[in-house]
Design a protein that fits this description.
Elements lengths: L11 E6 L3 E2 L4 E10 L5 E9 L4 E7 L8 E4 L7 E11 L6 E12 L6 E11 L4 E6 L10 E9 L7 E7 L4 E7 L9 E6 L5 E10 L7 E12 L2 E12 L6 E7 L6 E3 L4 E10 L5 E15 L2 E2 L7 E2 L4 E8 L2 E8 L9 E2 L4 E9 L12 E15 L6 E4 L3 E6 L2
Parallel strand pairs: 2-9, 19-30
Antiparallel strand pairs: 1-3, 3-7, 4-6, 4-8, 5-7, 8-9, 10-11, 11-15, 12-14, 12-16, 13-15, 16-17, 18-20, 20-27, 21-22, 21-25, 21-26, 21-28, 23-27, 24-25, 28-29, 28-30
């Protein structure tokens, strides 16, 4: 009349008791319980606990069977009994990032040949980092000019941190010059500052420069990380600044006879030079000066370029100088006096300059050499960008012309 009771295998519960929030470095306990709420004993049971990556264990009671992981062979659990496992340690994760623990129990009731599984998890969040980190830098920079960044840190908590490092992340265009204190390694912007006691504070100063400018501000960031276990690095605080590096806003294009690379010409040919300046930035470029620099072979301090035959609607100012025997430079400059738009080049605005420069012939320049050359380089100077009074220069790639007598 009465059939013996058979376990369904579903009356085993796993629970995890864990705090919702803990302070940085605070020691606390995870308690995992495997409860057999059935009327049939468990013939075998095992527990595996998957800890958060940033949890540093101090003790486990009872000790796990597997030294490489947190696994216990429980064995039998009588009906209506339970087993508890305590794992104590500290959580060193990123502030406000949830750290999840998962517990999995695999078991077999005494009257079953099959195994069953029960699991549970818990999430603990680390409160705000007790280490304050502040990065400060220049309001703006120009290429190749010295800039200084300062990293300030302070431990406002009540517990000593594990060994800590501070790193500065900069773009490839940043050239390191010096730091106080010195870097921990010569090939990276990283400082080992050791374990931080409560109220510990310090400052790091980095000096360097940027090789090029760009349209958008450059982001420089600092991080402080701890090493709760060998080989384990956890970032606990970051700080960043944006540095506008002037220069990427100027677009300068120069062509000679519609070419941007070198080519050959003949004596008496005309060089059609075009220089275009465009403001690709967000601020006005003020007091702009455009230059065409022409280094040419010379005979008796006369350039093979016939400047007296130059055609220039904008009427730039030309100045000649002897650089060396057989080499003479002619520089043509246009300012707001010749081109009023150069007083302030608005964002998106472009100004184009066209001129024609004829070459001498053997008749007009006695002794015209059999082989000669002309190097054309365009440059632009900007005195002020928006509200920033900072002179700077941009140059276009040189164009090399070769000339040979027929």
């Amino acid at each position: 009349m009465f059939k013996p009771y058979t376990s369904s295998g579903g009356n085993v519960a796993v629970t995890v008791d864990a705090p919702k929030t803990v302070a940085f470095g605070e020691e606390f306990t995870y308690r995992i319980t495997v409860a057999n709420d059935d009327r049939v004993p468990l013939a075998t049971a095992a527990l595996e606990v998957r800890l958060p990556d940033d949890f540093a264990v101090t003790t486990a009671d009872p000790a796990p069977d597997d030294a490489r992981g947190f696994r216990w062979t429980i064995g039998t659990i009588p009906a209506a009994e339970r087993r508890s496992f305590d794992i104590r340690g500290r959580l060193y994760s990123a502030p406000d990032a949830p750290a999840r623990l998962e517990a999995i129990a695999v078991y077999r009731p005494a009257n079953f040949n099959a195994e069953f599984q029960s699991d549970a998890d818990a999430t603990t969040t680390l409160s705000a980092s007790p280490v304050a980190l502040t990065l400060s830098g220049p309001d703006h920079a120009v290429p190749n000019a010295s800039v200084t960044y300062t990293i300030a840190y302070e431990h406002t908590g009540t517990l000593t941190t594990p060994p800590a490092t501070i790193a500065l992340d900069v773009p490839r265009s940043f050239v390191f010059a010096s730091a106080t204190p010195e870097r921990s390694r010569g090939d990276t912007l990283l400082w080992n500052i050791g374990a931080l006691a409560p109220q510990a504070k310090g400052q790091i100063t980095i000096v360097g420069s940027f090789t090029v400018g760009q349209k958008e501000p450059i982001i420089v960031s600092a991080t402080i990380a701890i090493e709760p276990a060998p080989g384990k690095r956890t970032v606990i605080q970051t700080s960043e600044v944006q540095t506008p590096v002037l220069g990427g806003d100027i677009v300068l294009i120069a062509t000679a006879n519609d070419q941007t690379a070198g080519f050959a010409v003949a004596p008496g040919d005309a060089i059609r030079l075009r220089i275009a300046v465009r403001n690709d930035g967000r601020e006005s470029l003020e007091r702009v000066r455009v230059h065409a620099v022409l280094d040419a072979t010379a005979v008796a301090e006369r350039s093979i370029i016939n400047f007296s035959g130059m055609t220039d609607a904008a009427n730039g100012t030309a100045i000649g100088e002897q650089l060396a025997p057989g080499l003479r430079r002619g520089t043509i400059t246009w300012t707001e006096r010749e081109i009023p738009e150069l007083a302030a080049l608005a964002p998106g605005a472009q100004r184009q300059i066209d001129l024609t420069l004829p070459l001498h012939t053997a008749a007009s320049l006695p002794g015209f050499p059999g082989q000669s050359r002309v190097t054309i380089t365009a440059a632009v100077d900007v005195a002020k960008t928006g509200a920033v009074e900072e002179p700077r220069r941009a140059t276009a790639a040189p164009i090399e012309l070769t000339i040979a007598l027929p």
